[in-house]
Amino acid sequence: MSGSVLNESIGMDALRYRVILEPQGDDGYNVVVPAFPEIHTCGRDRDDALRMARDAIELAILHYRDSGREIPPSDLEDVAIEMVDVHLPAA
């Protein structure tokens, strides 16, 4: 389903959501969508993972609409991902 078909079917402008790709070694990527915690998907590579995420989000939005649930707003907040070093105490 393309974004334009989804937008026409639910009568709204495009939405934008954060998608987190977690590498799984040679097995591709797991996908996390914070706005839709029920989504569990994956992909063979980054492009496939993003395509699967888009499809899962579109299906979730259609389900939300059909169930009368509020569709989460776009994730427009600033997001920062930082690395933190943690030193374990000596055993």
List keywords for this structure.
single chain, 91 residues, alpha+beta, Double Stranded RNA Binding Domain, 3-stranded antiparallel beta sheet, extended
What is the number of beta strands? 3
Rg calculated over all Cα atoms: 16 Å
CATH architecture: 2-Layer Sandwich
What coarse outline follows from CA principal-axis ratios? extended
Question: What oligomerization state is this entry in?
Answer: single chain
Kindly state the mean pLDDT as a whole number?
Answer: 87
Number of helices: 2
Strand content: 5-15%
Percentage of residues in helical conformation: 25-40%
CATH fold field value: Double Stranded RNA Binding Domain
- The secondary-structure element order is HEEEH
Stretches where pLDDT is under 50 for at least 5 consecutive residues are 1-5
Describe this protein's structure.
This protein is α+β, with helices and mostly antiparallel strands. It has a single domain, classed as Double Stranded RNA Binding Domain (2-Layer Sandwich), CATH 3.30.160. It is 33% helix and 12% strand. It is built from two helices and three strands, in the order αβββα. It has helices spanning 3-10, 46-67, and strands at residues 20-23, 29-32, 41-43. It has a three-stranded antiparallel β-sheet with strand order 1-2-3, with helices on one face. β1 and β2 (29-32) form a beta hairpin. The longest helix is centred in the middle third of the chain and has 22 residues, at 46-67. The relative contact order is 0.18.
